[in-house]
Specification:
Blueprint: H1 17-35, H2 38-45, H3 49-53, H4 59-71, H5 83-100, H6 103-110, H7 117-130, H8 135-162, H9 169-181, H10 189-193, H11 195-200, H12 203-223
Helix pairs in contact: 1-2, 1-4, 5-7, 5-8, 5-12, 6-8, 7-8, 8-12
Length: 234
């Protein structure tokens, strides 16, 4: 006689918004945004969808809350850090958070001027002020940093999602570098020349190097008495 499949035992601890958001982050990490439904989430929490709707009105709110939970893990600025160090640490915090949770990149890109990235923008802006950037240029400087951080970290996440899980990074980069090295030298002279650097590069180190380039430009322009902030539009 066939036995009935047992239902998963319901957890005794009360269902809270924090538990729901934590479970959503876990599912987003494993099945992605398309795989996150209230039915799947309810099964993961051993509850009913109605209980979840009591705490979260819909998927958009759930995604926003999950993204905010991940961004909240980024460490606060160290009190003894220089502005450059604080910006570098914050940028790496965002990069690492998106690298660990690739779906976050798309969510932040959709709401780059809203919470939770507004908090990151505020932290960048305060360090830009500490660098004594002229007030008229603070928005430009902070925006350039934020856009670089989101753009590069987001693209790194896209690369992670695009590659097959069993892809060997070293082999993949070696194959691409080999292709670059064989390009037409008249049409792709630069790309051919730096093919070897692609093979050996480290994504995180290159990301930090880009931050340092932007900070060097901000510092150099700040020191130039003749520089217009921001440069006049043509």
């Amino acid at each position: 006689m066939a036995t009935k499949a047992r239902r998963p035992e319901r957890r005794q601890e009360p269902l809270s918004r924090e538990r729901i958001v934590g479970a959503a982050v876990e599912l987003l990490d494993t099945v992605g945004e398309s795989g996150l439904t209230f039915r799947v989430l309810a099964e993961h929490l051993a509850t009913g969808p109605g209980a979840i709707y009591w705490h979260v009105t819909g998927k958009a709110e759930l995604l926003a809350a999950a993204t905010e939970a991940v961004v909240a893990t980024i460490a606060d600025d160290a009190t003894d850090a220089t502005p450059q160090e604080a910006i570098r640490d914050l940028a790496l915090g965002v990069f690492d958070a998106i690298d660990a949770h690739p779906w976050v990149g798309a969510q932040l890109a959709r709401t780059s001027w809203q919470s939770p990235m507004l908090g990151v923008f505020e932290r960048i802006g305060r360090q830009v002020q500490a660098l004594q950037v002229p007030e008229a240029a603070q928005f430009t400087a902070a925006s350039a940093l934020l856009n670089y951080i989101l753009g590069v970290a987001g693209q790194n996440a896209v690369n992670t999602l695009t590659l097959r899980p069993d892809t060997n990074r070293t082999d993949f980069l070696d194959a691409v570098a080999t292709e670059w090295a064989q390009l037409d030298p008249d049409q792709y002279g630069f790309t051919r020349n730096i093919a070897g650097q692609l093979r050996e590069h480290d994504d995180r180190a290159e990301f930090v190097a880009g931050i340092d380039l932007i900070l060097a430009g901000i510092t150099a322009r700040r020191r130039s008495a003749d520089a217009a902030w921001p440069p006049p539009s043509k």
